């Protein structure tokens, strides 16, 4: 009908509008669980899946070990 505005489509909350007050659910790229943390949402990986893909390297101190050596002649 002329002179009437079209009705806004229902948003995710069931009310009219776009639902800008709600976040879009972001899911982990590997396990597809919902992500809640800001870092997880930014990277697209949950903390468990991120640890699987990017394991921490060994600490340099854990690789050192003492080696018995003979004394140098003349000292």
TrEMBL record:
For the region Disordered, give the residue spans.
Answer: 1-75
The entry's protein name is: DUF6011 domain-containing protein
Q: Which organism is it from?
A: Streptomyces pyxinae
């Amino acid at each position: 009908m002329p002179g009437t505005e079209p009705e806004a489509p229902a948003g995710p909350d069931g009310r009219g509008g776009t639902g800008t007050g709600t976040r879009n659910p972001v899911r982990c790229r590997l396990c597809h669980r919902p992500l809640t943390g800001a870092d997880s949402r930014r990277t697209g990986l949950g903390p468990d899946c991120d640890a699987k893909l990017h394991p921490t390297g060994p600490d340099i101190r854990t690789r050192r070990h003492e080696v018995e050596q003979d004394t140098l002649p003349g000292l």
